């Protein structure tokens, strides 16, 4: 029996109860407590996973991808440990294991599914050796916390290099991600989208990687999916988009369901997922890849993905007096652009709510708002009569809209969240679309839960998976 | 017709830089002043004499090196245009680039364009955070707010600063000065970006650009309530 571990776990569990009593989420404090008492807590807990430890890192879609993998694996009856709700620093990862451990520090699980923040990734890898690592994409995110994108990519690459053995699951369409196989020398499986899977309305402005990560030459693209994702080839060296083993195509949104076909080796299957947003196909493909690598049959993976429900603020849907309201977390230009595109792809009138905070966890620098193409919304002006801006930096959000060309009389600033959300829910649109940065998300969700009803899953638009 | 030149928008696109272009253009539009934007990337030709407002932003290290190589080739024509009153806004890396040199941690002097008499040396820690400075625009004291994020520390000697630091770090975290001004060249570490919120500075740049062409430079008043409110949030937070 590992006495130190036991004491650490007990103390952490007590801290969790106390924290909850005082209204906290308890998603990182227990980890902090346990690690202070016994540094080996995470290491000792993690090695109890009977099968694999699977990590997800990258900029956008970590939570969604990890939860999709969980839906797939849990559907086979396997036991999992997962860190939910974006608690993805080392303390959050430790907390996840503690939550699943009994008082003796024992965990009964087959798989540990961990989303890990890019900046914390090297630290976590020093304590846990994953069998698989999924890297989805790299975009500019919260610059004031991490320094520039180059540094983040290097951090992840070097940490992977230091691992003696790991299998990588990589997005073939993002050059910053696809380079990881060559750059680290590990084995890899690539997933990606067939060329030209989206209408040409995507943002042209924020492209993060113009240059070959191997030789520095400017990359050439045959086509773009969004941001720097697409079919790239380097004229200077042999680096180009790897042919994905798992390839998605025929993407469509029907009702509240996203459908996509997947080609793998010689076979094909169709996936249906309860979510919106083109980019979520990438997350589903990553989950599909993980599932097939651990030997789950494609039909079973599809069934598992169908059970997936968006986590807080990942296209979470509510109904206010029968009117849908969609809550969407935004934290960087690419994610916000995709959110705006997904908003514009929904037919009918809309009311838009935008909550921008600039606390530590949001990124104190909100200049990235000026890299988002809100100008696209001007064309759809007749469909959006009201924009409600809220949060600590509501004025800056409103200013951004003004300079995008939205008429002033359509912009309202209400700094306090509750009246602002109420105003948006009661707005003229047939649907309310709510954008929120990280620290405004929890209160936004709380207010929505109080005012509106959470979506009841329905079968509309689900294609047959048999 | 005012001609706005965004230099290297491909490379220097950090920190919402293009918000500065958007602000300049919109405030012209709203007043019925015709304006056009030309984007000039590495290797493309541009005649600075024909430009009315030049914007030079900052980028990540690798990208900044690429632009520096290209900009050095245009040094003389840029210098001449500046001496003749070209209106320039240079932020962060662009600001450093206009100076004499950048002194690295290793003691290496990377030459700048040498157009302005200032230099930058690598600092120990990054200077990051919201910042408020006090400047004077057409003789009126104005608070300018933004966000700074730089490791280079710039020293401007006898040059005129853009303003005095009220709260934040400024050029180097030591002398309480922020930015620099020479003729119609404005330099600053403030992004956020700088021009959308700080509308009186934007209007000054428009005025100077019009004056240089001998055009009517009295600007009609615009509603600046949102701009002032956005600056107010930061001022209220930092200045008590």
UniProtKB/TrEMBL annotation, chain A:
Keywords: ATP-binding, Cell shape, Cell wall biogenesis/degradation, Ligase, Metal-binding, Nucleotide-binding, Peptidoglycan synthesis, Zinc
Residues reported in the UniProt entry to bind Zn(2+): 212, 215, 234, 237
Domain Mur ligase central: residue ranges: 56-198
Xref: InterPro entries: Folylpolyglutamate_synth_CS, Lipid_II_synth_MurT, Mur-like_cat_sf, Mur_ligase_cen, MurT_C
Pfam families on file: Mur_ligase_M, MurT_C
Catalyses which reaction(s): beta-D-GlcNAc-(1->4)-Mur2Ac(oyl-L-Ala-gamma-D-Glu-L-Lys-D-Ala-D-Ala)-di-trans,octa-cis-undecaprenyl diphosphate + L-glutamine + ATP + H2O = beta-D-GlcNAc-(1->4)-Mur2Ac(oyl-L-Ala-D-isoglutaminyl-L-Lys-D-Ala-D-Ala)-di-trans,octa-cis-undecaprenyl diphosphate + L-glutamate + ADP + phosphate + H(+); beta-D-GlcNAc-(1->4)-Mur2Ac(oyl-L-Ala-gamma-D-O-P-Glu-L-Lys-D-Ala-D-Ala)-di-trans,octa-cis-undecaprenyl diphosphate + NH4(+) = beta-D-GlcNAc-(1->4)-Mur2Ac(oyl-L-Ala-D-isoglutaminyl-L-Lys-D-Ala-D-Ala)-di-trans,octa-cis-undecaprenyl diphosphate + phosphate + H(+); beta-D-GlcNAc-(1->4)-Mur2Ac(oyl-L-Ala-gamma-D-Glu-L-Lys-D-Ala-D-Ala)-di-trans,octa-cis-undecaprenyl diphosphate + ATP = beta-D-GlcNAc-(1->4)-Mur2Ac(oyl-L-Ala-gamma-D-O-P-Glu-L-Lys-D-Ala-D-Ala)-di-trans,octa-cis-undecaprenyl diphosphate + ADP
Catalytic center residues: 365
Biological process (GO), any one: regulation of cell shape
Xref: Gene3D superfamilies: Mur-like, catalytic domain
EC number annotated for this UniProt entry: 6.3.5.13
Pathway(s) served: Cell wall biogenesis; peptidoglycan biosynthesis
An example Gene Ontology molecular-function term: tetrahydrofolylpolyglutamate synthase activity
Boundaries of every Lipid II isoglutaminyl synthase (glutamine-hydrolyzing) subunit MurT C-terminal domain copy: 329-441
Domain of life the protein comes from: Bacteria
Listed HAMAP family: Lipid_II_synth_MurT
Record-linked PANTHER family: LIPID II ISOGLUTAMINYL SYNTHASE (GLUTAMINE-HYDROLYZING) SUBUNIT MURT (PTHR23135:SF7), MUR LIGASE FAMILY MEMBER (PTHR23135)
Subunit structure: Forms a heterodimer with GatD.
Biological role stated in the UniProt entry: The lipid II isoglutaminyl synthase complex catalyzes the formation of alpha-D-isoglutamine in the cell wall lipid II stem peptide. The MurT subunit catalyzes the ATP-dependent amidation of D-glutamate residue of lipid II, converting it to an isoglutamine residue.
Family assignment from sequence similarity: Belongs to the MurCDEF family. MurT subfamily.
Protein name: Lipid II isoglutaminyl synthase (glutamine-hydrolyzing) subunit MurT
Organism: Desulforamulus aeronauticus DSM 10349
Gene label: murT
Automatic annotation (TrEMBL), chain B:
Source superkingdom: Bacteria
Catalytic activity: L-glutamine + H2O = L-glutamate + NH4(+); beta-D-GlcNAc-(1->4)-Mur2Ac(oyl-L-Ala-gamma-D-Glu-L-Lys-D-Ala-D-Ala)-di-trans,octa-cis-undecaprenyl diphosphate + L-glutamine + ATP + H2O = beta-D-GlcNAc-(1->4)-Mur2Ac(oyl-L-Ala-D-isoglutaminyl-L-Lys-D-Ala-D-Ala)-di-trans,octa-cis-undecaprenyl diphosphate + L-glutamate + ADP + phosphate + H(+)
Domain CobB/CobQ-like glutamine amidotransferase residues, every copy: 3-198
Alphabetized PANTHER family for the sequence: DETHIOBIOTIN SYNTHETASE, LIPID II ISOGLUTAMINYL SYNTHASE (GLUTAMINE-HYDROLYZING) SUBUNIT GATD
Family: Belongs to the CobB/CobQ family. GatD subfamily.
Role description: The lipid II isoglutaminyl synthase complex catalyzes the formation of alpha-D-isoglutamine in the cell wall lipid II stem peptide. The GatD subunit catalyzes the hydrolysis of glutamine to glutamate and ammonia. The resulting ammonia molecule is channeled to the active site of MurT.
Name of the featured protein: Lipid II isoglutaminyl synthase (glutamine-hydrolyzing) subunit GatD
Organism: Desulforamulus aeronauticus DSM 10349
Native organism taxonomy: Bacteria, Bacillati, Bacillota, Clostridia, Eubacteriales
Gene: gatD
């Amino acid at each position: 029996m590992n006495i130190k571990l036991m004491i650490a776990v007990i103390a952490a569990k007590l801290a969790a109860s106390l924290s909850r009593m005082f209204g906290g989420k308890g998603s990182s404090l227990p980890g902090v407590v346990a690690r202070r008492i016994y540094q080996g807590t995470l290491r000792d807990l993690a090695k109890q996973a009977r099968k694999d430890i699977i990590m997800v890192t990258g900029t956008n879609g970590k939570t969604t991808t990890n939860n999709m993998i969980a839906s797939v694996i849990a559907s086979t009856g396997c036991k999992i440990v997962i860190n939910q709700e974006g608690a993805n620093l080392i303390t959050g990862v430790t907390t996840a294991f503690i939550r699943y451990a009994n008082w003796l520090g024992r965990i009964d699980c087959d798989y540990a599914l961990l989303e890990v923040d890019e900046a914390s990734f090297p630290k976590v890898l020093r304590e846990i050796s994953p069998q698989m690592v999924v890297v989805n994409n790299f975009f500019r995110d919260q610059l004031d916390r991490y320094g520039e994108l180059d540094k983040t990519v290097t951090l992840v690459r070097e940490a992977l290099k230091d691992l003696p053995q790991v299998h990588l699951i990589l997005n073939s369409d993002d050059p910053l991600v696809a380079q990881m196989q060559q750059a680290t020398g590990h084995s890899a499986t690539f997933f990606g989208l067939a060329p030209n899977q989206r209408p040409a309305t995507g943002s042209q402005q924020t492209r993060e990687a113009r240059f070959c990560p191997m030789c520095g030459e400017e990359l050439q693209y045959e086509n773009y999916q969004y941001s720097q994702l697409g079919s790239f080839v380097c004229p200077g060296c042999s680096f180009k988009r790897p042919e994905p083993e798992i390839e998605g195509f025929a993407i469509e949104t029907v009702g509240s369901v996203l459908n996509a076909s997947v080609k793998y080796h010689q076979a094909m299957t169709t996936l249906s997922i309860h979510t919106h947003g083109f980019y979520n196909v990438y997350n589903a493909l990553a989950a599909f890849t993980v599932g097939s690598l651990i030997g789950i049959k494609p039909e079973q993976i599809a069934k598992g993905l169908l059970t997936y429900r968006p986590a807080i603020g990942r296209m979470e849907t509510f109904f206010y007096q029968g009117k849908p309201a969609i809550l969407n977390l935004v934290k960087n230009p690419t994610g916000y652009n995709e959110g705006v595109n997904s908003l514009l792809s929904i037919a009918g009138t809309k009311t838009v709510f935008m909550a921008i905070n600039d606390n530590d966890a949001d990124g104190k620098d909100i200049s990235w708002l000026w890299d988002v193409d809100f100008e696209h919304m001007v064309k759809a002006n007749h469909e959006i009569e009201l924009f409600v801006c809220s949060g600590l930096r509501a004025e800056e959000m409103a200013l951004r809209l003004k300079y995008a060309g939205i008429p002033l009389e359509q912009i309202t600033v209400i700094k306090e969240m509750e009246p602002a959300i109420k105003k948006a829910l009661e707005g003229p649109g047939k649907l309310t679309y709510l954008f929120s940065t990280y620290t405004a998300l929890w209160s936004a969700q709380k207010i929505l839960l109080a005012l509106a009803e959470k979506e009841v899953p329905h079968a509309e638009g689900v294609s047959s998976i048999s | 017709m005012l001609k706005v030149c965004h230099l290297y928008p491909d490379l220097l696109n950090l920190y919402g830089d293009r918000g500065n272009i958007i602000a300049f253009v919109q405030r012209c539009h709203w007043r019925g002043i015709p304006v056009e934007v030309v984007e000039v990337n590495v290797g493309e030709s541009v005649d600075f004499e024909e430009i009315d407002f030049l914007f030079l932003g900052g980028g990540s290290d690798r990208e900044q090196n690429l632009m520096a190589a290209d900009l050095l080739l245009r040094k003389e024509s840029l210098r001449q245009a500046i001496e003749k009153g070209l209106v320039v806004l240079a932020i962060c890396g662009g600001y450093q680039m206009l100076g004499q040199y950048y002194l690295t941690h290793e003691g290496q002097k990377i030459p700048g364009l040498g157009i302005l008499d200032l230099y930058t040396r690598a600092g120990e820690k990054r200077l990051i955070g919201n910042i408020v400075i006090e400047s004077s625009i057409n003789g009126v004291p104005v608070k300018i707010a933004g966000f700074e994020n730089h490791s280079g520390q710039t020293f401007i000697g006898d040059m005129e600063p853009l303003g005095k630091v009220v709260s934040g770090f400024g050029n180097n975290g030591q002398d309480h000065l922020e930015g620099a001004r020479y003729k119609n060249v404005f330099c600053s570490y403030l992004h956020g970006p700088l021009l959308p919120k700080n509308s009186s500075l934007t209007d000054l740049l428009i005025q100077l650009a019009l004056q240089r062409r001998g055009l009517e430079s009295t600007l009609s008043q615009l509603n600046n309530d949102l701009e002032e409110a956005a600056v107010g949030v930061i001022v209220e937070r930092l200045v008590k």
